[in-house]
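Reopening: CNTP2 protein still failing for me.
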Amino acid sequence: MKTLKDVISLKFKTSESEGVIFHGEGQQGDYITLELKKAKLVLSLNLGSNQLGSIYGHTSVMTGSLLDDHHWHSILIERHGRNINLTLDRHMQHFRTNGEFDYLDLDYEITFGGMPFSGKPSSNSRKNFKGCMESINYNGNNITDLAKRKKLEPSNVGNLSFSCVEPHTVPVFFNATSYLEVPGRPGQDLFSVSFLFRTWNPNGLLVFSNFADDLGNVEIDITEGKVSVHINVTLVKKNRIDISS
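Support: Ran it again with your exact input. Result attached.
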């Protein structure tokens, strides 16, 4: 396929922060990749480069944040030559690609939800998308409908289900005065806690626990947007350990 114009749209939701949403590449060095990186949306595009380096076509644009919230997000990519409109949840970003070429020359198939292993370093370091997509439309073709009716030829549909499974996690909302107290485990010499959290507040207490026999306490909090762990031990000279990230 050699196109001057492209219109690609889809909706997705996921609880993963990394994953390839779609990818296509050609023998001329052209490629287009839409993926999640650190829960942000990244569109990478190359309409052609030359080996001398005087024409460098790689262009990468990042938009959005916290897209791993398992809510539906809509994407629209409109390309006319080197002019691109990237719309995420009705927020549009306009940019022009690097280089001098206008056509996207894709010799191979386009893959949704991942990218085939090509032996290149770029392919084995990227994760496949894990989540739900709907309303996938590529240049007027309803990919979701065609895949469901098995009308895509040639195609390789791997382990797809045409339903969206909800995650089993149950979120808990805390306001400024609420807290959750759970029983401790006496006689254990290991303290282990893990959780996911999301907040707009730069400060707040996440976890607090006293050790048994007045041996001290551990505290995990957010201070000015950074997570800090404070361990107070009463029986040693260096009685306080602070870790910040």
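The chain has a mean pLDDT of 87. If you still see a failure, please send the error message rather than a screenshot.
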